[in-house]
Amino acid sequence: MISIKQLYYALALERALHFKKAAEACNVSQSTLSTAINELEKQLGMIIFERNNKQVLVTNDGKQILAKAKKVKLEVDELMQLSQQNKHPFSGAMTLGVIPTIGPYLLPKVLPELRKNHPDFKLKIIEDQSHVLVDMLRNGDIDAAVLALPFPIDGLMSFDFWQEDFYWVSHKDECPSRVQEITSEELEIEKLMLLKDGHCLKDHALAACKLQKQNPSSEFDSASLHTLIQMVAGKLGSTLVPQMALDQLIFNESELRAIHLNEPGPHRTISLIIRPNYVRTHEITLLQKLFNAQLAKKCA
Q1: Where are the beta strands (DSSP E) in the chain?
Q2: What's the DSSP call for residue 300?
């Protein structure tokens, strides 16, 4: 009889493609995981993984088996979560994915209140780019994800909790005096520095400015808003920053100015994303309300 544990081990090996790393992820010995995989293949009469001393590969038959295993895992996980529905909210552990251009600015604003209201809530945070988190969500590796929309989330559900605009940040010596608003046509595009490709924040900033999908300043390739702000402070150019991040990014930078980008908004929407059949939707709506209330209080 095939066991759920065998399927979990196989899915872990698919992710790691390395027996030792997969075993560590499952908190078992390498021999235990290897024995379970061998027994699973024997019971199915199929080879799921090709392995030698150098690499592990998924066979064509294995891809079909693992696709079914993912569906089984989702059903089992949701079955286990059903027991939490009638308990006190947040009595069970939750894994939340957050993108790098939201996490450092959202979490300090909302986690203290969340801990205050639900001190026993076990929350695990995973930070990664949007496309990675969407795949993890579909596979059941995380419970929910905080993403900036628009972004492709076909088949998933969104719970919007914040809408915001971008602000143009420049050194005060390079900023027009007495300006409170600025349009994309007034920006010096050749001096505008944005994040490198792969970050949805860059796509949203370009869309807000009605620019093509390319970095206006090809001399810089940053993965961090903090790095961009330091370059602006060094008079190397200007950048666009979402409202949520302003207080942290320019709090100690007296030489910088932040001016609202006067283009039709909101420029991005922040949402909690879940699978349609996720059984803890009530807790997601509670998080939605808490996040909105804290952002409204601290970003005003």
Answers
A1: 49-51, 56-58, 94-98, 123-127, 144-149, 157-164, 166-171, 181-182, 192-193, 238-242, 256-261, 268-274
A2: -
Amino acid identity, position 24: E
Overall pTM > 0.85: no
- Contact predicate 149/271, CB 8 Å: yes
The two three-digit tokens of residue 281, written as one number = 């939707």
Distance CA 241, CA 139 (A): 32
Alpha carbon of residue 141 to chain centroid: 13
Distance CA 195, CA 214 (A): 10
> Which two three-digit tokens encode residue 206?
């370009």
Residue 284, classified by CB atoms within 10 Å of its CB into exposed (0-12), middle (13-18) or buried (19+), is: buried
The one-digit pLDDT tens for each residue of the chain (300 residues) are: 888 899 889 999 998 889 999 999 889 999 999 999 999 999 999 899 998 877 889 998 888 898 888 888 877 777 776 666 566 788 888 999 999 999 999 999 999 999 999 998 999 999 999 999 999 998 888 999 999 999 999 999 999 999 999 999 999 888 877 788 989 888 888 889 988 877 888 889 888 888 765 555 555 667 789 999 999 999 899 999 999 999 999 877 778 999 999 999 899 999 999 998 888 899 999 999 999 999 999 886
Q: Position of tokens 């030489």?
A: 255
Cα–Cα distance, 87 to 166 (Å, whole number): 40
Beta bridge partners of residue 168, listed in sequence order: 240, 259
Q: How many CA atoms lie within 13 A of 18 on its CB side?
A: 6
